[in-house]
Amino acid sequence: MRVALVPSRIPGVDYVINPYIGCGFGCKFCYASYMARAVGRRPQEWGSFTLPKSHLLSALVRQLRKPWHFYGKYVLIGSATDPYQPLEARVGLTREVLRIILKLAPNLRVGLLTRSSLVLRDVPLLRQLKADVGISVSVLRDAYFREVEPKSPPLRVRLNVLRMLKEAGLEPYVFLAPIFPDTLDVLGEVLGELKDIGVQVRYAELLSPFKNPNLRTLRAFPRWVRLIREGGLYAEFYETLRAHYPEVEVIRHGWS
């Protein structure tokens, strides 16, 4: 690996670091499934393997030997795979990335996005770095949660993580994604709880049903597609979102 800090095309993000290839959570909607081809796997296998990036830490140290190149830049840890997925508990790559940045480039602006409670382990580092911590919260019905997210922490765990991050002195934000098309009632409940916790919802991403071939294997897939194509559905979700969080940025993905 030549570099750890990879230039980014994400608006507002200068660089990304993805400590792992693959993901142990196995979410059926994950947009990064195409990256399986980089290690000789099929997109359908995304979620069944996790590989730590070899030489990531040495590459990061090498890049940060010239910290002035990165002064004030924003780096997002976990743009294509969760930085706190299950393997992180044993391997600790994400934690070492944070330690290296704190030591060599403390003026680098650090953000990360996760759906895991393991982020709580690194609160002391995150506080020192004044990190921008995002928690990904999906909106789907309990009846099919484990079909869609076989190994992810459930909603209640993620809400508790948000509370604990706030209690620790951080100001976490929420990336509400994805929002499934049969969850208008669930969305209202989730938004109300997030308001009670006192966290910001920065982005809300509606389900894009064709990003991962694994999603098509689920029984409810034809119904989701049909609902998305129905006229007026987007307006209802948009109004619900904006009623609770007027500044939220909504990623529509072609909903009618």
Write up what this structure looks like.
The radius of gyration is 18 Å and the shape is globular. The protein has a single domain (6-251), classed as pyruvate-formate lyase- activating enzyme (Alpha-Beta Horseshoe), CATH 3.80.30.30. It has helices at residues 56-63, 88-91, 93-104, 123-129, 145-148, 155-167, 184-197, 221-229, 233-244, and strands at residues 6-7, 15-17, 20-22, 50-52, 74-77, 109-114, 132-139, 173-179, 200-206, 249-251. The chain is 32% helix and 18% strand. The strands form two sheets. It has an eight-stranded mixed sheet. A two-stranded antiparallel sheet has the order 3-4. The mean pLDDT is 94. The protein has nine helices and ten strands. With 256 residues, the chain is an alpha/beta fold. It starts with 5 loop residues before the first strand and ends in a 5-residue tail after the last strand.
Identify the CATH class.
Answer: Alpha Beta
How many helices? The count is 9
Give the strand order, joined by hyphens, for the main sheet: 1-2-5-6-7-8-9-10
Briefly note the CATH topology name. Answer: pyruvate-formate lyase- activating enzyme
Instruction: Give the end-to-end Cα distance, rounded to a whole number of Å.
Output: 43 Å
Tally of domains: 1
Please identify the oligomeric state: single chain
Structural class given helices, strands, pairing?
alpha/beta
Could you estimate the helical fraction of the residues in percent?
A: 25-40%
Q: What is the alpha-carbon Rg in Å?
A: 18 Å
Low-confidence blocks of residues: none
- At CATH level 2, the architecture is Alpha-Beta Horseshoe
Report the major sheet. Answer: 8 strands, mixed
**Record field, number of beta strands:** 10
* Percentage beta strand: 15-25%
What is the ordering of alpha helices and beta strands?
Answer: EEEEHEHHEHEHHEHEHHE
Give the overall shape, derived from the CA principal axes: globular
